[in-house]
Design a protein that fits this description.
By secondary structure, this protein is of the alpha+beta class. It is about 35% helix and about 30% strand.
Amino acid sequence: MKYWGNSLLSLLIVMAMSPAHAQQDMPQLGAIESWGCQMNEGKSMSDLMEVVEDWNDWSDENGLDAYTAWVLNPIFKANADFAREAGWFGYAPNFTEMGKGMHTWMTKGQKMNERFNEVWTCGWHSEAATMLVRPPTEGPSSAVASFSDCTLNEGVTPAAMMAATAKWNAYLDEQEVVAAIAYHFPGHGNPTDMTADMKISVWRPSLETYGRDADLYVNGGGRQMDDAIFGEIMSCDSPRMYAATLVRAGQAQ
């Protein structure tokens, strides 16, 4: 497993703090938590959304103003029970805000947690540090989100990775691609046998937008450009795609 103490993330932090990069705007590292869940027998998304509505009221009452969350439902994913599988993807602009929210949930959220447990059963809970490397064109919204596990090639530095990312963003700008992209560096709760350095998520407004981007990648030279920019930088596995329904939009920090 890639622990923060000796991972790519720690090298990125050192790079951001070094004098050579002091004048560059490194993306701020936010915090995410992910829950993997199965809907309980006889329960549906409508049941979950009833609980989410009450949870939003609870969150307002308890000052969770910086927290943003999506419910995830698989669109393309191997070995998945699509009828019952669901997930939770929560974001805070920093770990201080995430920690405040988790403390409030642990100390005041027992009854709300019971409500969620009546609807679904969550088998895993993990966290990651998140770097938004391609911001969305607008604020948080429902989206189509794809996730891949990625590993840097031997000898590749964080500086080289960020330089490649800048080139890729420039190419996407030229092609008028509106996708947002984030790098997620694993922390607590990730699989102990995880060998990837990070996850990459790509967020698009709709499946129609995804189709346009996929055509660009498959038939419009995007794959060749990807290989030219990232071929010597990293390798990624097959992506999983989810419908990401926005259930709470935190205030900008």
